[in-house]
Amino acid sequence: MDLxxxxxxxxxxxxxxxxxxxxxxxxLNVVIHRxxxxxxxxxxxxxxxxxxxxxxAEPRLNLLTPRSxxxxxxxxxxxxxxxxxxxxxxxxxxxxxxxxxxxMRYPVVELLTALVSALLAWRFGWGxxxxxxxxxxxxxxxxxxxxxxxxxxxxRITLPLLWxxxxxxxxxxxxxxxxxxxxAAAGYLVLWAVYWGFKLLTGKEGMGYGDFKLLAxxxxxxxxxxxxxxxxxxxxxxxxxxxxxxxxxGKGRDMRIPFGPYLAVGGFVxxxxxxxxxxxxxxxxxx
Length: 287
What we know:
The protein is mostly helical.
């Protein structure tokens, strides 16, 4: 395929990147499911080492092996039944071997990844900024769904995301390097202060350290200037989502609500439109 066609046609570029997003979304499903299991196995091995005993025998598990299997019957999933979104629709959302329901989560992640990827292609066009923004969005999606499942944001995602954001802004891809460095430091310290303030007042932990690191990463990508927007969007979305989750679950205030997905929404908005929103807001206050 002649890449110049994609460079000259925003629509074709968005469609092509959207298809790529479907494929990446399938891989993200693997990351979301397996990364927490891999980390748990490592923690068990570390605990055994500290206690001076042999680590427990663990089946081999990484992001590439073993092959994907039906969680209900254990049947390996062949390639033709593992086509992103299309296979789920063709199979009617059920395993071909045992007819057990395939969780809706899988096609949702694939479709969401495709839509987000296409939107980024439309917003940034062909170039380095698009490639970097795709990595940014895919990392946020994986971290968000892991946080939803485990209420944990893995350092294996947040820390590389932070450093990659700083590296991308050495050349000013999304903001200048000074703003990125200050954004990373301010992002961490803002939630660190909120965490300790809440703990001193209530004796409870209102969030995890992973949230500090994620906001630091968002600051490294978009700059300190848009951090208030990130916090505003994430806090508003978190409040609405939390109220809805408590109402649906019936658990009330005792329910643990992951904040990572809402930070991700705020960070995504900030990277795409943050400077424009902040500039428009400040325009209401001339002088």
